[in-house]
Design brief:
Elements (H helix, E strand, L loop, with lengths): L1 H24 L5 H33 L2 H33 L2 H17 L1
Length: about 120
């Protein structure tokens, strides 16, 4: 569990660091465009890293013992889901957070109920 979380957090940090660097370079560009550009820049690196780990895990699954097979398959699934969440979900949540869309959602949902009750 810690391996998968660590791998996912590391990928998220790499993407967020690239976003931070590109915010300084791409002044005057919308935040969504900067995030998209940053994801595209780090996508090759992230995919190569994950593929290297997955090839290693595949070798362990094929040539390792039966006692380690369930652990390796669990890591396999965890690494894939961690890569997906760190690249696609974390960046989308950052854009939603930066645009204050969460606050607008809660104000729309709960603000309308308070006004109707009063």
């Amino acid at each position: 569990m810690l391996t998968v979380i660590g791998f996912s957090v590391h990928d998220t940090i790499v993407v967020f660091d690239r976003i931070r660097e590109n915010l300084g370079r791409m002044r005057g560009v919308s935040f969504e465009t900067v995030v998209n550009h940053s994801i595209l820049q780090t996508l090759d690196r992230s995919i190569n890293t994950v593929l290297t780990v997955l090839f290693t895990l595949a070798a362990l699954t094929l040539f390792g013992g039966i006692t380690i097979r369930h652990f390796v398959v669990t890591l396999f699934v965890g690494i894939i889901s961690g890569m997906y969440s760190s690249i696609f979900n974390a960046a989308a949540v950052l854009v939603v957070w930066e645009n204050d869309e969460i606050g607008r959602f809660f104000r729309r949902v709960f603000g309308g109920r308070r006004a109707a009750a009063a």
